[in-house]
Design brief:
The structure holds two protein chains of two kinds.
Chain A: E1 3-9, E2 15-20, H1 57-79, E3 85-89, E4 94-99, E5 105-110, H2 118-134, H3 152-165
Antiparallel strand pairs in A: 1-2, 1-5, 3-4, 4-5
Helix pairs in contact in A: 2-3
Chain B: E1 3-9, E2 15-20, H1 30-49, E3 54-55, H2 60-63, H3 77-93, E4 119-120, E5 133-136, E6 140-145, E7 151-156, H4 163-179, H5 193-204
Antiparallel strand pairs in B: 1-2, 1-7, 3-4, 5-6, 6-7
Classes of the chains: A alpha+beta, B alpha+beta.
């Protein structure tokens, strides 16, 4: 199973964290190998990636937010207020969604063969986000532009969590 | 294992058929169903265009990203961002059409010959599609898009097996009773008694 990317959106619809993983080359798939992550960073403040692109990563994040937001509203309209959108799948990828009671949205894109990742997203929220972002006394309450979420501890443990388990 | 309802959306995003078979989902007004059809049509196109693009790892010159150091420390923004731009440029330059209709194997010519360019979709053997199934806590939505762009949305119980088979039968009924009806106007709402009867007999029997 491969994880392609991971996003966190806050309750103001802003992307406060995003990260992409490249699939590791098939020859060196040992768990201990250094993960090939192409964007180790990603605080939104970085706008240097633009180049000649017509659609940057920020636009991708916005499209993903729009998609999960619309789907969530659609699901609530049909299934009732207490229904929750969990995942969708296309022929190429699978998107997993988890929303906390405080409207922080966790989104993960994986390959189509992956099992249900709702628990994994919940664990990322409980064990990583709450521990390293919310409980960090230096972290602001809101995270405009990803401030406070992009701390080293959170990033490293997220990296470990994803690489170790998947 | 009930089928809750069926929605058919024409290729322009208009609602042409909606029918409920089992109670289970909330009832919406006709207007809301029209909005839902249009919204879904848009989301379907977007889910297709946000398909992750995998840079080809066969070219070692570009794919081995220049970060031999630890990859997760945010201290080397400069090298990381350059790596990102070289990796991302092929994908970004190949999408100005916006339709997302290009095939991954067509290796769109890149303006950067240095970064021997290409990306592929995760499953190159399968054509790129939009949303196919969506799961929630209460229902599962299966979407089937025909070659002509008509979309069939089947709302079922999350545990229902073999939705594909049901979908195929619904499509057959549609072909038999709607498309072969000489009075049916293409892309217009479906009002064919035979189709209603066929669906009712087939789907109610599965409750």
């Amino acid at each position: 199973m491969t994880v392609y990317s991971f996003y966190i959106f806050d309750r103001h619809a802003e992307c406060i964290y995003k990260r992409r993983w490249l699939p590791r080359p098939a020859s060196i798939t040992s768990k201990s190998s250094q993960p090939v992550s192409d964007t180790p960073t990603v605080a939104n403040g970085l706008t240097s990636v633009s180049g000649p692109s017509t659609r940057s990563q920020e636009d991708d994040a916005k499209l993903i937010f729009g998609t999960v937001f619309s789907l969530r509203n659609m699901v609530r309209k049909l299934g009732g207020e207490d229904d929750n959108f969990i995942t969708y799948r296309t022929s190429q990828y699978k998107l997993h969604y988890y929303e906390t009671p405080t409207n922080i949205k966790f989104v993960m894109l994986t390959d189509t063969k992956s099992p249900n990742m709702r628990v994994a997203l919940q664990q990322i929220y409980i064990n990583l986000y709450v521990e390293y972002v919310v409980k960090n006394p230096l972290s602001p309450v809101e995270h405009p532009g990803g401030v406070g979420v992009n701390n080293e501890l959170f990033e490293q443990s997220l990296e470990q969590f994803v690489v170790r388990s998947y | 294992m009930p089928v809750y309802s069926l929605i058919i959306i024409n290729k322009a995003g208009g609602l042409i058929y909606q029918r409920e078979f089992q109670p289970g989902l909330l009832k919406l007004s006709t207007n809301d169903y029209l909005v839902l059809a249009g919204t879904f049509h848009g989301i379907h196109a977007i889910t297709r265009s946000i398909t992750p693009k995998i840079p080809n790892l066969s070219t070692p010159s570009t794919s081995t990203t220049p970060n031999p150091s630890s990859s997760s420390t945010p201290s080397h923004h400069a090298s990381a961002s350059t790596a990102t731009s070289t990796i991302l440029s092929p994908s970004s330059t190949s999408t100005p059409g916006g339709g997302g209709s290009q095939t991954p194997t067509a290796a769109t010519p890149s303006p950067h010959p240095s970064s021997s360019s290409s990306w592929s979709y995760p499953n190159p053997s399968v054509p790129v599609s939009g949303l196919e199934t969506l799961e929630t806590e209460k229902f599962r939505l299966t979407c089937f898009q025909t070659l002509t762009g008509t979309k069939f949305l089947l709302f079922t119980d999350p545990a229902m097996p073999n939705v594909e088979g049901v979908m195929r039968s619904v499509y057959e009924l549609y072909a038999d009773y709607v498309m072969k009806n000489p009075f049916y106007q293409l892309e217009m709402p479906v009002r064919c008694e035979g189709f209603d009867r066929g669906l009712g007999g087939f789907l109610r029997g599965r409750a």
